[in-house]
Amino acid sequence: MTIERVKKFTTHYLSLDSRMSDAPSHTSDQPATLAPWASLRYRNYSFLFLLSLFATTAQQMRLTQNLYQVYELSGSAVQLGLTGLAQGIPIFALGLFAGTLADFIDRKRLLFITTFGNLFVAVTLGILTLTELIQVWHILVATALTSALNIVLNPTRMALISYLVPRSHLTNAVSLNSSVSQGSHFIGPMLGGLSLAWMSTGNAYLFNALFYIPAAVSIFLLAIPVSDKTKREKFSMGSFLGGVRFLFSEPIILTLVMLDFIVIGVGYYRPLLPVFAKDILLVGPAGFGMLS
Hints:
- By secondary structure, this protein is mainly α.
- The chain has helices spanning 3-7, 9-14, 43-74, 77-104, 107-130, 136-164, 170-198, 201-210, 212-221, 226-229, 237-249, 251-266, 273-280, 284-291.
- The chain is globular.
């Protein structure tokens, strides 16, 4: 986004309640303290919440399945490391562009593309596994592809929140969405491990694909406010570089971004957990899901 757009970001929130199709035009009568689920009373936000719930859970679930299958096929910790690398490279390569795409391309279209892309990958892995054609490189490519899709899907979801609730509910809505994201890091791996323990790996992938169906239905039912569609700009390198300049002009934001990159790049332990679950702790895929 351009620097001008960034500077106007706060002003954008101050006029939200006059632009909401399903939100009240006045917020003075809103209670000082909101109920934890208050934002879910807004129809469009509830659909976005369901999308976040199913999509983020499915993301974590399939990563768990991918890692365990790689170790079952190869028995190599190096291959597990490569799987983690396949997940991390798109984050570094596309992370700066992901939010920009959400600014210049219709967000509902982006949600459909990324969600159905994840669905396609899950079904493909399931078919390859059931037909015994699966190889480690298939999983590496699938991991990189889904990582690229999700690095676009996740900020696009977050960018829509401010259009779906009034200003008085914005903090509540963001908190709910963040809770779903954090909860998926517990629920997703657990479901991924249990699915591998209860059914074949191929069927586990197909089970994972089912999570994207309600996510896609939620996108279909989601009504994007007109104000989000009428303020599109054409993509330019100037707009992208403006965002980069803003990042480097704000030391606190830059520090947080670099900290996140360092943790993902050199401190990510999860790809090695199958070794401990399978060979050291002897707890199998269900235990691996709990460890993750």
